[in-house]
Design a protein that fits this description.
The complex is a heterodimer of chains A (267) and B (755). Chain A is of the alpha/beta class and 267 residues long. Chain A has helices at residues 21-30, 45-56, 71-75, 91-98, 112-115, 162-165, 178-189, 193-208, 220-231, 236-245, 252-265, and strands spanning 35-38, 60-64, 76-81, 84-89, 101-105, 127-130, 135-138, 144-149, 169-172. Chain A has eleven helices and nine strands. Helix content of chain B is 51%, strand content 14%. At the A-B interface, strand 3, helix 8 and helix 11 of A face helix 13, helix 14, helix 16 and helix 23 of B.
């Protein structure tokens, strides 16, 4: 088995709590309840889980889900080698064995028949049947399952089944308030808080346009990109156009409006 | 008489002699004019001015041309140079000999204003040429009558010229004039209306030719601007600046929306769109931070001052939030001249306020006047602790008026120069009147509402442009299309048709089943399929090697899923449909009806989005579009009823009907949009003499549709259609020679189109 130390988080990730989510998560973890985090892209879901793993001192195994992922990509499979076949644990199995937090990012991207394998791990049984191997794995007592889920941009076709949804307790994330977001951008990238505030203003302007031609506003992540570029010596307006406007829209009117917002905010 | 002339100086007497004129009216004012001419022109200039005046005086068209010439010519020559003088004379002569002598006075009268707009010799020269061309085209002579009729529109055109040229470039002016000449040459009265800017299309064409940033082109952008930066949103309603030269309307907002000028030119380095931004920022700031105040007890001066302080306050707050606004406001805010405070003969209240406003806005603008300066400081003191408030501003404003009041404020003559801030609204939202009373606007407002309610009985017409190939331009809002639900008939007719063609329907069904293209979807875990699914295959091999049960479903295949087409069938319902089809006992109408029924049945079976409309026309003012089936309706008894009541009358104005149908199709969400036009002849209408006109218009409509992503296809029942149909539809057409085969052909054509 490979070294499990790689899953440990050694340095404290920067996370700015928006509410009492840290306390609530700790309570959920104490009871080993599975957790679902919801929210728009780039608002800090993954960062939050990383931070909690560090705080609780547990290893974190992250799986980015996609459409082609099968159950055996999660659970594990036999591989061919010179002597015949060899079993290799999948990330979910590894996490259950070593007592890690297993984080399934964007779970709805995976096909519904895949997501069903997590069911036995998420109720009172806390077991994972490896039917190919003929093993019934009892989850380590530290093991916890976390999924993330962005209800916004997926189509109606991609939704979690009720039977999956109802195994989790949920955290709803949103973009932080202007003041909080300013301090996040400033701390994350080390820019002046005045600049951070201007960036957040542009972000707010774009978020107001959600539903009027924009599917999703400018995320906190993009704001930190812009701040990083500015810190690297790029002229602020150019950095904003590059990091904040161009990625999110192809609509000329919206682009012009946001460019204008940048002009008025950076005098 | 003799006394007066002897009073003249020797010099001006010489000119008077040179003028050689007997009009007493000229005699009375001559000295004044000559004085002005001497001030503005060189020695030779004055001499040539008098020479030309003499000529104009001797033309035999009375004293008026001479008087106007004497008055206007020196100013014109001083603007564009003295070499223009002979040209004016020449042109006046041209009008006089051309039977258009009535236009001489308007020509000369408007010339100074026109010159100011054009401001160069060469431009003015072009202007002369344009007018000359217009005269040549509109002056008509009737053969055998031996008389020539003057251009009916010319005097009006000349009167409107300064206003037109303030909005249009010479190029635009030419186009506008060209339009009027083209369409109203045979209609003297209409021509007059057009050239005096009375008719709606005259205004519309002018609007089209304008320079500047049009509100309608940027409405969405501005709406997004309001939403994004201000979390605000409202209807943006344009108003026109052209017609109120004296009292320029100002932007304002009320419960009906935000009113903005229809067009902004670039100004002082600020783009038109940014001027809109400035207005909206100002208005949005008011909506965010201003509160209403009771105003009954304030004098007009006090109100103006309160407005100004409040304007400055909301702008100050807006600039705190969006510092980039300052640049915009600074460029648009006039810079008042403080030295003019010394004037004593006029009311300076506006100047004082403008100084104050500029000083608040612009940190680099220093006011020397101590009182005004102290109020600037008072303003900033008030703003130190946050947002302040409207009443706090009112308090400062009232004391400003009290402190700075002067005797001269009551003078009727008011100083206006550089005091108007045109991006600010009129602040009507600030006031509450406790005493409702003699306000005219209110009195009539509710009457208007009532009138509106009365009118909503029928659907209002929609207006469409029509293409004129002669001039290669659109006639704006030329055609009125009235839409109504097609009357219903006995639906059994349709069921009967379906029964009659049961055999055909069966054949169609077979073709339908073969028609399932688009959108490939991968189907995995198939025992038999088109391809090997490698992932699954390897997994099965491993299972096999490790001794467990392998999965045999290692193939995958692709299937086609969905078909995303929206179809609009537009049926010609003109009079000619009532004729018997060649070689058939049925009328074309009956055959069309069968064909449409079968097609509707086919498409309904296929499950594509589908609508049917019929059209006919009775001149451009009455194009009728009947709704037979909408996209949202099923092929049910309502639709069948309407289908069975189809009847033919009037003519075929196809372009307008297609544009109208296209606006429904455009709203559909579909990958492919198809418009089928079923007709039995070429586009024609009784108010159009030129055969090509409507053909070309339809061709243009097809092009427009193509740009909207709509594929148009024509099914033509006219055996002679080859002569024109390819001009209109390119190669997207089928001509059906045996009309009795139509019911069979139409669904087949549709299916082969969408295969």
């Amino acid at each position: 088995m490979s070294d499990h130390a790689q899953y440990n988080i050694n340095e404290e990730p920067f996370y700015q709590a928006q509410d009492d989510e840290v306390k609530l998560y700790e309570a959920a973890y104490a009871a080993r309840l599975p957790v679902m985090v919801k929210g728009p892209t780039g608002c800090g879901k993954s960062r939050f889980i990383e931070y909690m793993a560090w705080k609780l001192g547990k290893p974190l195994i992250t799986v980015a889900c996609n459409e082609d992922m099968t159950a055996s990509d999660l659970v594990g499979r036999y591989l061919l080698d010179a002597n015949g076949t060899r079993w290799l644990d999948g990330p979910l199995t590894t996490a259950a064995r070593i007592g890690a937090i297993c984080y399934l990012d964007e779970i709805v991207e995976a096909r519904q028949d895949t997501t069903v394998v997590i069911h036995p791990l998420t109720d009172h049984r806390r077991t994972l049947p490896l039917d190919k191997k003929g093993e019934l794995l009892e989850a380590h007592e530290d093991f916890q399952l976390v999924i993330s889920y962005n209800p916004g941009y997926q189509s109606l076709m991609k939704d979690l089944k009720q039977s999956t949804k109802q195994r989790f307790c949920g955290f709803e994330f949103d973009y932080p308030s202007e003041a909080t977001e300013t301090s996040i951008v400033a701390k994350e990238t080390g820019v002046e808080s005045e600049l951070a505030m201007q960036l957040v203003q542009i972000g707010t302007a774009a978020r107001n346009l959600k539903g009027h031609g924009l599917d999703e506003g400018i995320s906190t992540r993009l704001l930190t990109y812009a701040a990083t570029l500015i810190k690297g010596g790029i002229e602020p307006k150019a950095a904003c156009r590059m990091a904040l406007v161009r990625p999110i829209t192809d609509d000329v009117d919206i682009r012009v409006t946001l460019d204008h917002a940048i002009e008025t905010i950076f005098a | 008489m003799i006394d007066e002339t002897t009073e003249r100086s020797a010099k001006s007497q010489a000119y008077w002699v040179q003028l050689n004129c007997n009009f007493p009216a000229a005699d009375r004012v001559f000295d004044e004019y000559i004085l002005e001419a001497k001030a503005l022109l060189s020695e030779e200039g004055v001499s040539s001015y008098i020479d030309h005046a003499r000529f104009i005086g001797k033309m035999g068209r009375g004293a008026e041309p001479l008087l106007v010439y004497l008055e206007e010519a020196p100013t014109i020559a001083s603007i564009v140079g003295e070499e223009i003088l002979p040209e004016i004379q020449y042109f006046t002569d041209f009008l006089s000999k051309n039977t258009n002598f009535k236009a001489i006075v308007p020509f000369l009268q408007s010339l100074t204003a026109v010159t100011r707009r054009l401001n160069s010799y060469s431009q003015l020269h072009c202007y002369f040429d344009l007018i000359k061309k217009m005269v040549a085209e509109t002056t008509s002579s009737v053969h055998g009558h031996h008389s020539t009729f003057p251009s009916p529109g010319l005097p009006d055109l000349l009167k409107q010229a300064p206003r037109l040229l303030s909005e249009l470039s010479l190029e635009g002016f030419r186009n506008w004039m060209g339009y009027g000449v083209r369409y109203y040459n045979n209609h003297p009265e209409r021509q007059k209306d057009y050239f005096s800017l009375q008719s709606p299309d005259s205004v519309a064409v002018m609007q089209r030719e304008r320079h500047g940033t049009l509100l309608i082109d940027h409405e969405r952008q501005l709406d997004l601007y309001l939403r994004g930066l201000w979390q605000d949103g409202d209807y943006l309603v344009p108003y026109s600046l052209i017609f109120d030269e004296l009292r320029k309307p100002m932007p304002y907002f009320d419960h009906m929306g935000i009113r903005l000028p229809d067009v902004y030119d670039d100004y002082n380095g600020v783009l038109g769109i940014n001027r809109y931004h400035a207005v909206l920022a100002h208005i949005a700031a008011h909506r965010k931070w201003s509160s209403k105040m009771v105003v009954d007890n304030w004098s007009p001066f006090q109100r103006v001052a309160v407005e100004l302080f409040e304007d400055s306050r909301v702008e100050y707050l807006a600039m705190q939030r969006f510092p980039g606004l300052r640049k915009l406001f600074l460029a648009l805010h006039p810079i008042p001249k403080e030295d003019d405070l010394a004037h004593t003969e006029m009311s300076l209240i506006r100047l004082r306020l403008a100084l104050l406003s500029r000083a608040i806005l612009d940190p680099d603008f220093k006011v020397k006047d101590k009182v005004i300066h102290s109020f600037v400081e008072r303003f900033f003191d008030a703003m130190k602790d946050g947002e302040s408030s409207s009443p706090a501003m009112a308090e400062i404003a009232l004391s400003f008026i009290a402190r700075t009041r002067r005797q001269t404020d009551a003078l009727p003559d008011t100083y206006f120069e550089n005091t108007e801030v045109d991006y600010r609204d009129d602040n009507r939202h600030l006031w509450i009147y406790i005493e409702q009373g003699d306000d005219e606007e209110d009195t009539f407002e509710h009457l208007e509402e009532q009138k509106q309610q009365d009118e909503i009985d029928t659907l209002p017409p929609r207006h469409y442009h029509e293409w004129d190939y002669n001039s290669q331009s659109y006639r704006p809002d030329w055609v009125s299309v009235y839409e109504a639900v097609h009357p219903s008939g006995n639906m059994q007719v349709v069921d009967h048709i379906l029964d009659k063609h049961a055999a055909l329907a069966k054949r169609l069904k077979a073709i339908l089943d073969a028609l399932k293209p688009q959108q490939k979807v991968r189907v995995r875990y198939q025992e038999e399929g088109s391809e090997l699914d490698l992932d699954v295959a390897i997994r099965s091999l491993i299972d096999l090697k490790s001794g467990s049960q392998p999965d045999m479903r290692i193939n995958m295949s692709h299937k086609n899923d969905g078909r995303d087409i929206a179809v609009m069938l537009v049926v010609d319902l003109s009079q000619s449909l009532n004729e018997k089809a060649v070689g058939s006992t049925q009328t074309i109408l009956a055959l069309s009806q069968e064909a449409v029924t079968l097609l509707a049945w086919t498409i309904d079976k296929l499950g594509d989005k589908f609508a049917i409309g019929g059209f006919n026309s009775n001149t451009r003012h009455d194009v009728r579009y009947s709704h037979i089936k909408g996209f949202g309706e099923h092929f049910d008894h309502n639709v069948k009823g309407r289908l069975s009541a189809m009847e033919g009358k009037y003519s075929t104005r196809m372009g307008a009907a297609m544009r109208h149908a296209a606006h429904y199709l455009e709203a559909q969400k579909a990958d492919k949009k198809l418009m089928l036009v079923l007709t039995d002849g070429e586009p024609a209408d009784i108010d159009v003499d030129d055969d090509q006109l409507l053909i070309q218009d339809t061709r243009q409509a097809v092009k427009e549709l193509q740009q909207q992503g709509i594929y148009s296809y024509c099914i033509n029942l006219d055996p002679k259609a080859d002569e024109y149909v390819s001009d209109i539809f390119g190669n997207h057409y089928t001509v059906i020679d045996h009309v009795d085969k139509l019911p069979e052909q139409l669904p087949k054509i549709f299916m082969s189109l969408t295969k």
